[in-house]
Amino acid sequence: MSSPSRASFGSKFGIIMAAAGSAVGLGNIWRFPIETGQNGGAAFILIYIIAIALLGVPLMVAEFFIGRHAHTNAAHAYKKLSSHPFWSNIGFIGVLGGSLILCYYVVVAGWVLKYMFLSLDGTLSTLFTPGDASGYESLFGNFVSSTWSPLIFMVLFVLMCHFAIAAGVRKGIEKLSKIFMPALFVILVVLVGFSLFAPGAQEGLSFLFHPDFSKLTTSSVLSAIAQAFYSLSLCMGCLCTYASYFGKDVNIIKSAVSISVIDTLVAIMAGLIIFPAVFSAGISPQSGPSLAFIALPGAFQQAFGAVPAVAYIVSVLFYALLVLAALTSAISLYEVPTAYIHETWHIRRRYAALVVTAVCLMLGTVCSLSMGVLGDMHIFGKSVFDFLDYFCTTIMMPLSGVFIAIFLGWVVKRDIFMDDVTNGCTLRTTPAAVVHWLLRWVAPVLLFAAFLGVLGVI
Ligand code: PHE
How far apart (Å, rounded) are the C-alpha atoms in residues 170 and 255? Predict the structure, then answer.
């Protein structure tokens, strides 16, 4: 399965950038801010941070440990730690889930790419009519339901991922992450700067940060857990696969904490960009695609319209930010099946990437067309796109989380975990012991309850 000449990351900075690149994605930019706003602002952020500390970081450490210990792809890694037929196969959930998420993620990433061009060529600014979003609404509606345009941009995006993956772990994934992540951070800081000076920014800030504990319900706690999982790219094989390229000297607990902090900071900064602009434009905040593709293009024009050049720059930078964030996340999803095929079929990475690209293009095409000509095709009453999203994030992610926590807490010998996570007892043992305790006692219970909660059982 693995070979002594297996690829590896070249530096600790590269590791943090690649894993943070996986975590920081569309989920941070269009999902986190709105969840926060709707679930009690700072009160939700508090619950989110608790979810990250109790579940996110321990599960990330678990995936890092499994990947680095086994030194192979996500599906085979579990086999190295258990010969039991059930436990040795739970890694497949990650490979399957990661591959399926990839197929619809690239569709949305294609939209983002298209909007970057639309802001570059000035279309988004010319469409602007104060107080009327119908221009943006029909632009988006017509675009996603058309056949060719979304497909062309999806193919462009898939090709970008393909070449990054085919270039290899160090020359592709690591090199690009080391350039893209700092660039993303610079863009974020510039955009936060602009947004905070938008007239009426104050109202947006209080929407985001005013702690309203009365809005905290069981469902907001579930939302916080789901958001933490999605945002940290947990349980879908990405972190486990990346960790199989880590060196033995990497402090995996410290890395998991740094990545979680970066991811949370980016999410909060995205909120600092979006809400001041949205409120300053007098638009009511909404979530998902309608926020990024209908409300925000107008909000930027309205908020910064006094200086059109600023509105133009903010709009271009915002979509460039989304493209970068989507690209590094999609690359991590791509790597999961690529590493699996490469090591299972014993074929070169380049050819394995070709297989992934072919499958992703086929399924991605179906997802994209499910917004238009294939709109009548339904799985369990949902469009193909919505079904994949629901199935992966609501069923596979928490289920895989429960299994990973039980596997680490109860099946794998504690000594193996402690020895590996402390790099052969050269690091402090307390953090590793705390993580193990959380994986054994806290994570399975919380995750199982969350799983039943999302299914509406409790
Ligand atoms: N974390 C990514 C985001 O926030 C999405 C993702 C989920 C990536 C699962 C990989 C695995 O957009």
Answer: 18
Q: What is d(CA 395, CA 425) in angstroms, rounded to the nearest whole number? A: 37
* Residue of the CA atom closest to atom 6 of ligand 1: 233
User: Which tokens in the block code for residue 431?
Assistant: 């953090």
Q: Is residue 346 part of a domain?
A: yes
pLDDT digits (tens, 9 = 90+) for 10-69: 999 999 999 999 999 999 987 888 788 778 888 899 999 999 999 999 999 999 999 999
User: Does residue 26 have its Cβ closer than 6 Å to ligand 1?
Assistant: yes
H helices within 40-90, ranges in order? 42-51, 57-70, 74-81
- CATH number of residue 305's parent domain: 1.10.4160
Identify the H or E element spanning 457.
Answer: none
Task: Measure 330 CA to ligand 1 centroid, in angstroms.
Answer: 8
DSSP at 246: -
Which of the listed residues 111, 230, 262 should we mutate to test ligand 1's pocket, taking the one with most ligand atoms within 8 A of CB? Answer: 230
Its domain, for residue 366, covers 12-454
Query: What tokens were used for 201?
Result: 């920014």
Predicted TM-score (pTM) of this structure:
0.94
Residue with tokens 């936060």: 192
In terms of Cβ atoms closer than 10 Å to its own Cβ (0-12, 13-18, 19+), residue 437 is: middle
Residue 5 belongs to some domain of the structure: no
Number of structural domains the chain divides into? 1
Q: Is 3 a member of any domain?
A: no
In a domain, residue 347? The reply is yes
